[in-house]
Each structure stands twice: as structure tokens, then as C-alpha cells.
Amino acid sequence: MSAQATVASQGSAGAAPIGVGLLGLGVVGRGVYDALRDNAATYAERSGRRIEIRGVAVRDADRPRPGVDAALLSSDPRALAAREDVDIVVELMGGMEPAADCIAAALRAGKSVVTANKEVMARQGPELLALAQEHDAALLYEASVGGGIPIIAPLTRDLQANDIRSLHAIINGTTNFILTAMAQDGTSYDAALAEAQRRGYAEADPASDVEGIDAAFKLAILASLAFHTSVRPDDVYREGITALSASDFRFAADLGYVIRLLAIAGRDPAGALDVRVHPALLDSHDPLARVDGVLNAVAVEGDLLGRAIFEGEGAGSGPTTSAVVADVLDVVANGVRAGSRRPWAGAAGGTDPSAPRFVPRGELRMRYYLRVLVRDRPGVIAEIGRVFATNHISIASLLQVEADAVAGTAEIIITTHEARESDIDRFMATAAMLDVVRDLAVRIRIGSRP
Amino acid sequence: MSAQATVASQGSAGAAPIGVGLLGLGVVGRGVYDALRDNAATYAERSGRRIEIRGVAVRDADRPRPGVDAALLSSDPRALAAREDVDIVVELMGGMEPAADCIAAALRAGKSVVTANKEVMARQGPELLALAQEHDAALLYEASVGGGIPIIAPLTRDLQANDIRSLHAIINGTTNFILTAMAQDGTSYDAALAEAQRRGYAEADPASDVEGIDAAFKLAILASLAFHTSVRPDDVYREGITALSASDFRFAADLGYVIRLLAIAGRDPAGALDVRVHPALLDSHDPLARVDGVLNAVAVEGDLLGRAIFEGEGAGSGPTTSAVVADVLDVVANGVRAGSRRPWAGAAGGTDPSAPRFVPRGELRMRYYLRVLVRDRPGVIAEIGRVFATNHISIASLLQVEADAVAGTAEIIITTHEARESDIDRFMATAAMLDVVRDLAVRIRIGSRP
Asked: Distance from CA of residue A276 to its chain's centroid?
């Protein structure tokens, strides 16, 4: 191991303390603050050095914060990130700016950075990781996906012997809570969302969660790591959960399925990536079908590994603090060799310097669940069946239900055999123009395989 | 990060190749050999250096092995481990000797070691990890527990911010296959074991698996890491699965339970450890109850984390190769800073230099399932009920079934409320002497909480 002979001597608790600058003191920031303070002796033993919080950047430094040393507070995250006595910057502000700016400034100054910021890592991960490498600093982001569940580290190190075949993940707890509630209680989307907001699982403006934006950020990070490339958020095909109705959950259950917002990434034999976030019907025996409420889970398939599943609490102060502090301790113990120093692509160590290619959505082949609102009159099934046939779509099951005598409508639930997504798109466009069709209410993809 | 400033320069694929000595060419050894050969270019890119197999130690070097370079074969693992051109020793022989001896010799020579050897790590982990530290070498053993599932790395690094509260694990695929088959097919233990042997899941001599010895080795490793101490195999209370009968699976199912061989480790508020392997009745909704067949799973509870579950294929060539090669790549990229360099206890970095204390088994408090074979005559329930009462055990449910008119016997299935294990022991000793009791057939602990 001659090339490794000059590693730094292992620290001990007697070595000089290491300084942390904490950017952000929200729910997670407070969790990290408390953990570093309450467990200082334990963490010094585990990492080899005492860890001292040298400053905390908050929006309003004058607001009293019980239990927090007021002398540490400031309202200038950039200045804190640049301070001489700050060795590690822990960025927990969220959002793009000033977070990305502070991270980049810290890395340029040779400071290591630990962040929980999925948006910054999804949008600027490749550039920031390259910057870290250039300046001999570590940039760790385990907390950016899956809260307390280790998934970044497994993909970068523990599973690195594999050719990863696919990822299937539930990585947004808010939507999983809503979908679980709709399935279990038969409530409407609006009622389930309100309950999620009441419990603090959903923001007042829930768009980032329910439109799949948050999941797409996280999936961009996971797919970049799994496939040794750079997937950007805009590369992720994305559908949210707002079109689902209580009846879809009843029909899904009757058919033996549950509905989950899945984040899926795969690579076809030609190397093109398939990266998408959308609701999916999962067989009720699928391991991801059992992931209820605010839990998260990531299933990884590799050529050697087979399938492994990582499951746990994907958000919240405790779990996210667990991931952030583990990264901090790793940096303290191992410096620039902590975590993954490998940029996602382009720079030395990446394996796919060119931009990734993506499978055109129309070429995807899947089974589909369709709910169609029709006029309740003879010949409807024949008319719709004709449009399926014209578009080369084979029907697996068809159920006409819930005639509404007043409105004169009925609902038809169709599941298809495997079909091309472009054919499904064409079916929907054509069927929408039929006089008998009142509404092509919803289309949900079936099954988790990419 | 001044103390870390002297880390070795990051390798590149252009750096000098690194030499691997492979000890053992069984199912896993062959998997590792093939992976290192077939993926050489990819692994060079990912780790920064080309990895060359410099020699392979086998029992019979003259036996032809299709696809293996005969010039690499030798029958002297000690000599191979000591060779100048071998930088990393990969030990896949299994068993204590000569494996432990080869590992120690390699570490003393400053070579890093990757092993899948649960027995060596469970018995000599503390000494070998201290030896590795002393000689500035890495000793990695991710493959020793859970096959391809990352669990050693999560416990040593990703979850290190936590005070780990408990582990509940299914870490022996052979017994889980047998238990799953007995539950699903209603077969006897002997028939299920024979099927496991037919499929290659069980050895001709299945004792190590079915007596819980293999699981105890693995649990000793996990508990040592989780609780920052040194748990030896003999510290693990252990019961196998050989006493279970087909009827237990029927009764368990009727009561809403499944039977699993659980490996459990916990720490009580006073710091005493509770470390045991035994069959347990799990509520059918418990996440571990759904882990079927040869799958493994480890549930970890931490103060920050809540609960996380790691699930996947716990054995076999591919999954184990995934873990072994990941460790090799980690050593190639990070040298002595790869994996966990922290000895389990006693040496610098351990947090519990004294020997761990264990909860006396009699003090455990749990619920119990008991199956008792009695003479089928009036007054039996009253007699047995009296022995329960005398021993302060409260009955939760009682079922008398399956009277055998010919033998004049009946079976009684009892579940208790929470009771002290010493009281259960005393009940069993007393009840066994009753004239009405023909056989105290089985006692299974209920629930997974320690």
C-alpha cells in the first residue's frame, strides 16, 4: 500500500478541536446543533477530535432562541462560511441561494462541506463536486436523499462493484402519507393533503411535494450516482399525484394494487437512461407497496447484488440530523477521503464524460391503468374498444362501474397489457374527441419495472 | 482540515497496478475472481488503479479450473499472503484456520485485508482490528454479515451519530428458507431441511445454520459495532430451530404471527447488553415478518434515526462478491482510511474498554408461546393453570386442540402476557413433573422488542 503510506496520522480526542459553521437553524439545523452539543464527548471519541460549533447563521440573529448560545448567532452565512476558524461548513438553509453560493465559497477556501440540500446537489452537484476535488475538500450530502436512510454512501461505495440495473424509490414522505391516507381512509386528495398539512408533513404550498419536484431532485442525485453520469432535474420525467381520486384507490385495491409515487431510474441495454417520477400501481406484494405513511425506501438492483432495499424515515429532524452528523464525523475522521470524492461525470473519475442519453418517453413499454368517464349509453364499450385496437393496445381487464343516473355517466376502468407509451398517448388524444367520452380522468402506469 | 492535509494523492487509472492475493476459490472466491477479471477496466476507473490478481490459493492447485489462469494457483495461502507483490489479501477460505493466521500475517506485513469470514471476525475481530491499526493497514469485512446488504459500513459510519438502541435481524438465509417453507407448505422441519439441502442452501451437516451458530457469529459482529464494545460468540444466547414442528406454524398463523429465527441485540438503560439468537413469533405486520426465503434483513433503531431496515440477499456468490469487491475498491481508493479503522473496544477509539456486561437471561421480560402435550382428561387445564399462577405468569390466550384419541393426548397452546424468563423457566421445570403433562414441547418468545 505504498501509495497510501502518507495518510494523515489518526486523530485522537486530544487533537486540536475542529470548527463547524452551521448555516441554518430550522428544524434540522436545530437537531444538528443539539446533537453536536449534547453528544460532544461521544463524537470526539468516535471521530478523534472535538467538534466545536463556531457560529450559526440565521435569518434573524436577534430573535431569542432558547437553548442556543446567542453569541454564536449571525445573519451573514457567507461571512460565517469564510471564517478562518470554521473548518467544516454545514449547510442546512435549503433552496438555491444563498446556499449554493455559500457551499461554493467554502469549497474554494478548501473547507469541507456537509449539506442536506437536494436542490443544490441536483442542480449543481457535478460542478460543486468538481470544485471540492479541485480544492482538496470533501463535499458530503447523505442527508439530501432519504433522511436518515443511508443511500448516498451505499451507492458511492458499498455497491460500487455492481453494474446498477435500476432504482425504484419512494423518496417523498409527504406524498406517501397522502397516498397511504387516501388508500386506507378512502378520503379525497384534498382531505388527505389537509391532514398532511395539519400534521406538519406538508407545506402550506405543497407544490414541491405533490407535483413530484422534490422527488425529482432526489432522483437526479441517485441516478447520477447509480449510473456514473450527471442527471439534472430537468432530465427527470415528472408527474404528480393531484389527479388521483378516491375511486382510483378503490379500483386499484380491487385489482390487487396499491398506488405509490415512484421514482424510477434504469438503463436500457443500449445505455440510454430512463428516469422518471410518477404515480404507479404496484402489486400489493411488491416490497415497496408495504412502505406506508411518511416512510421512504429505495430498492437497488445490481448485477452482482440482486436487489437490496433501504427503508426508514425519510425526513424529520432526528433522521436528517443522523445523516448530517454522520457526514460531519466522517469528515473529521477522514478529511478529504470522507464519503465520495468522485465527481458524477466529466471530471477525472467520472465514467461518462459525455451527456447522458435518455429513453424517449414514447418508447417506454408498460402496462397502464386508465379511468374514463363516459356517457352511460349503449355502444360505448365498442367505440372505446375500437380506439384501443386502432392504437395497437391490448386490453387486459375492463370494468364499467358507478353509473350516475342523474348525470347520465358511467366510469370505465381499463388495464392494458404491455403497450408503448406513444400508443397510449395517441389513444388518449383520440378517445378524448369521442362524443361518448366525457373525461379521460386518469392514466397510471402499472408495475415498478423500468 | 490541517491534520488531514497530508493524505495520499488521489490515484488515477494510470497509477501502478495494485496486487491482490486471493485465498480460496469456492463459490464466493470464484465470483470475486470473475468480477475482478471481467470488470477490470471499470474497477480501475472507479478506484483509481488497476487491480491485478497476483495469486490464488486453493486446496488442490493441480485440479483443472476452467476459466482460471493455472499459473496463478498455489496451495499455500500463507506464502501467498506474504508475497511482496500482494498489496491486498482477500480471504475467502472460511473457518478459523488457516484463515485467521493468514489474515494476521498479512496485517503484520502492513498489507490490507478484505474478508468474508464471520467466524474469524466474531472470534478475533478486536485483536485483528487492533493489529491492523498497529500496522497501518485496513481490515474490511462487509461480506461477513448479510451478504450483499451493506450493514457493516452503515453501522460504522452512516449511523455513527446515533446511540443505537437495538438491532433485530434475520441473518441466516438457510433457516429463513426452512421456516418460510414450513409456514407456506405446512411441511415438517425434516422435509424443509431436505429441500434446503437439495437447493444448495443448506450444508450436508446443517448444524451451524439450524443451531443458530452462524447467526450468533454475525450478531456478535453487529452488536460489537452497534454498541462500541466486543461481543464474542459465546456471549450470544442461542437457540436453534430444530424443535419447531409443523403445528407451531399453524398455531402461529392462527394467532396472527409468523416464526422467524431472530438475532437481537439491545442495551438496557443501565448499559447491560441483551444479545441473543432464537426463534421468535413476530406479528405478521412486523417488517421482518415479510422477509421470506433466503433473504436477510437488519432493522436498526437509533435515537436520532428512528428505525431503518436493510434488506436483500444475504448469501450466494453474486451478493457476497458485491460486498467483497466493494471493500477491495475502497482499500484501493482510500488505503488505510477505507472502511472502519476503529477497533471494537479496548484500543484507541473504542468507547468501552472494559468487558461488556450482559443482561442475565432470567431477567428478560417477554411474552411467550408454549405448546404442551397433555393427557386428554378432565382437570388438566386447572392443574396447568395452577402452575402458571404459582410462577406469577399471566395467561393471554389458551387453546386446547387436536385431541389424539388413540394416544389419549391433547395439545394446549398458551400465550402469556409479559413474564420474566426465570418464571417461565421455573414453570417449565415444574410443569414437566406434572402427571398430566406428557411433553413441554416448545417455548417460543413473542415479539421482536428486546
From this structure: 11
A2: cell is: 505504498
Pairwise CA distance, residues A439 & B220, whole Å: 61
The per-residue pLDDT for range A269-292, each reduced to its tens digit, is: 899 999 999 999 999 999 999 999
Q: What ipTM score was computed for the predicted complex, to two decimals?
A: 0.93
pLDDT single digits (tens) B315-343: 899 999 999 999 999 999 988 888 765 66
Around Cβ B303, how many Cβ atoms within 10 Å?
15
Tell me if B321 and A304 make a contact (CB, 8 A cut-off). yes
Helices marked H in B284-361? 317-334
Nearest CA in chain B to A87: B1
Mutate to test the interface with B, among A20, A157, A162, A310 (most CBs of B within 10 A): A157
Given CB atoms, is B232 within the 8 Å cutoff of chain A? no
Average pLDDT of chain A, as a whole number: 91
In degrees, rounded to 5, the angle at the alpha carbon of residue A360 between the alpha carbons of residues A355 and A362 is 175
Host H or E run for residue B307: strand B306-313
Spatial CA neighbour of B168 closest among B181, B151, B153, B156: B151
User: Does the CA dihedral A210-A213-A217-A222 come out positive or negative?
Assistant: positive
**Pairing, β B273-283 against β B257-267:** antiparallel
Question: Over the stretch B240-298, which tens digit does the pLDDT of each residue have?
Answer: 999 999 999 999 999 999 999 999 999 988 899 999 999 999 999 999 999 999 999 99
Rounded Cα distance between A329 and A337, Å, is 12
Measured between beta carbons, the chain A residues lying within 8 angstroms of B284 are none
pTM: 0.93
What phi and psi values does residue B363 have, to the nearest 5 degrees? -90, -10
Residues of B in contact with A15 (CB under 8 A): 3
Q: What share of chain A is helix, strand, coil (3-state, %, to 5)?
A: 40, 25, 35
Which among A1, A137, A322 has the least Cβ separation from residue B302?
A: A322
Q: Are the Cβ atoms of A304 and B35 closer than 8 angstroms?
A: yes
- What ranges make up the beta strands (E) of A321-436? 365-375, 395-404, 409-416, 419-420
> DSSP class of residue A357?
P
pLDDT tens digits along A65-93: 999 999 999 999 999 999 999 999 999 99
| Structure-block grid coordinates of residue A409 | 355517466
Question: Among candidates A118, A54, A119, which has minimal Cα distance to A88?
Answer: A54
CB atoms within 10 A of CB A49: 21
Interface contact A322-B307, CB threshold 8 A: no
Per cent of chain B over pLDDT 70 is: 93
Residue A306 sits at the chain B interface (C-beta within 8 Å): yes
Average pLDDT over residues A198-219: 95
Confidence of residue B221 (pLDDT cuts 50, 70, 90): very high
Look over chain B and give the mean of its residue pLDDT values, rounded to a whole number.
91
Instruction: Identify which of A43, A310, A312 has the shortest CB distance to residue B306.
Output: A312
Beta-strand relationship, B365-375 and B437-446: antiparallel
End-to-end CA distance of chain B: 41
